[in-house]
């Protein structure tokens, strides 16, 4: 008797799927055996609330969530945020760097609402936090994700993919969390929408880097058009439902689709320029490094050679030409020795001026000497 074994090769977006790493309420995560250090996240047509107590199938949600997530991460990546997101590869899936997740949910709030009011009933709804309030919650469904302090996170000594989560790591994630919120808050303001609060998660990749990871979609935030709670277009609409009908689900899906479409308008083309002034051609190598760093995050850069000491009027004339033709400007001054280029520029413009002289061999030697003294 002969036995035949048949293997089914599962492909998504042209990627061969490996083992199922983990399955959650709204997504599956698969290994990608052909791409080391990467995985594929496949969204489900499923919406849940209350730690999964309330759950419904919602046809089309997977595609909407996937596109929303991709657009949000592209906005954040263009702003220089380090993320695990790589690319959307199918209507319902995207490729990500493989991460072990830090078991903490990072929440940022601009206005007091939702669970914050339950924990702080003496605070009126709509109380505005300036700066935004940050909260952290330990991911534990069985105990309804209890709120944790910074001290609890550090004391837990989480070892995530070989990285011990200590004070420095917590500080980085906290700063990144507020930065993510403020970027998206300002972006949504362009569409007259108020970002009320949001939650994000971080992971550690195989090289030990902390990255913004998981998913950011309409399940992740509260969003109020015109700042009006009655117009909310987020998952809170679903949370508030007691008896969920097909019409209710259509409304929620329509809201999610609207959010996904609005994200196309959140990356306006800004007529901007970073102008690097160098005192002499000898500074060009240092200036090229600055230009590369700026271009890597999507900025337009010009390099100009001019001496504020020998040709002050020419320097100011070049600067005024940029002021007349660009709405968003940053000047970077690179000059050695006298180092007077930065002060000349900053004294004659209202635009930001960053002074970044090239390091000299003598300065490097002095710094090494100071370092030696510090550790003797």
What level of helicity do the residues show?
25-40%
Mean pLDDT across every amino acid position: 91
Low-confidence stretches: 1-8
**Shape, per Cα inertia axes:** globular
Total E-strand runs: 22
CATH topology heading of the largest domain: D-amino Acid Aminotransferase, Chain A, domain 1
Q: Distance between the terminal alpha carbons, to the nearest Å?
A: 79 Å
For the report, how would you describe the main beta sheet? 7 strands, antiparallel
Rg (CA only): 25 Å
Q: CATH superfamily name of the largest domain?
A: ATP-grasp fold, B domain
Number of separate domains: 3
Tell me what portion of residues adopts beta-strand conformation.
25-35%
CATH-derived architecture of the largest domain? 2-Layer Sandwich
How many helical stretches? Answer: 10
| SS-derived structural category | alpha+beta
CATH top level assignment of the largest domain: Alpha Beta
Protein name: PurE domain-containing protein
Keywords: ATP-binding, Decarboxylase, Ligase, Lyase, Multifunctional enzyme, Nucleotide-binding, Purine biosynthesis
Family: In the C-terminal section; belongs to the AIR carboxylase family. Class II subfamily. In the N-terminal section; belongs to the SAICAR synthetase family.
GO molecular function: ATP binding; carboxy-lyase activity; phosphoribosylaminoimidazolesuccinocarboxamide synthase activity
């Amino acid at each position: 008797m002969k036995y035949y074994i048949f293997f089914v090769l599962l492909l998504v977006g042209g990627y061969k799927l490996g083992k199922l790493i983990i399955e959650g309420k709204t997504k599956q995560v698969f290994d990608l055996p052909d791409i080391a250090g990467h995985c594929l996240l496949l969204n489900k047509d499923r919406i849940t609330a209350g730690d999964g107590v309330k759950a419904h199938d919602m046809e089309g949600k997977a595609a909407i969530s996937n596109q929303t997530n991709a657009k949000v991460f592209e906005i954040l990546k263009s702003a220089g945020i380090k993320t695990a997101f790589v690319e959307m590869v199918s209507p319902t899936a995207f490729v990500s760097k493989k991460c072990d997740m830090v078991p903490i949910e990072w929440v940022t709030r601009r206005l007091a609402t939702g669970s914050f009011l339950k924990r702080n009933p003496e605070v009126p709804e709509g109380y505005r936090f300036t700066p935004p309030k940050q909260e952290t919650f330990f991911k534990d469904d069985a105990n309804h994700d209890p709120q944790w302090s910074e001290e609890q996170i550090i004391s837990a000594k989480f070892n995530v993919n070989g990285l011990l989560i200590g004070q420095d790591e917590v500080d980085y994630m906290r700063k990144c969390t507020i930065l993510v919120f403020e970027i998206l808050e300002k972006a949504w303001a362009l569409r007259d929408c108020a970002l009320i609060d949001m939650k994000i998660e971080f992971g550690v990749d195989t090289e030990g880097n902390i990255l913004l990871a998981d998913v950011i979609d309409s399940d992740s935030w509260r969003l109020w058009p015109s700042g009006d709670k009655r117009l909310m277009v987020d998952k809170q609409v679903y949370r508030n439902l007691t008896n969920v009908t097909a019409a209710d689900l259509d409304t929620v899906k329509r809201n999610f689709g609207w959010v996904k479409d609005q994200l196309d308008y959140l990356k306006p083309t800004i007529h901007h320029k970073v102008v690097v002034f160098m005192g002499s051609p000898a500074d060009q190598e240092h200036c090229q490094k600055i230009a590369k760093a700026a271009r890597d995050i999507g900025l337009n850069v010009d390099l100009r050679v001019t001496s504020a000491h020998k040709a002050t009027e020419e320097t100011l004339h070049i600067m005024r030409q940029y002021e007349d033709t660009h709405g968003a400007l940053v000047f970077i001054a690179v000059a050695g020795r006298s180092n007077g280029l930065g002060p000349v520029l900053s004294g004659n413009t209202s635009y930001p001026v960053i002074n970044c002289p090239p390091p000299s061999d003598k300065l490097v030697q002095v710094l090494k000497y100071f370092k030696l003294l510090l550790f003797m």
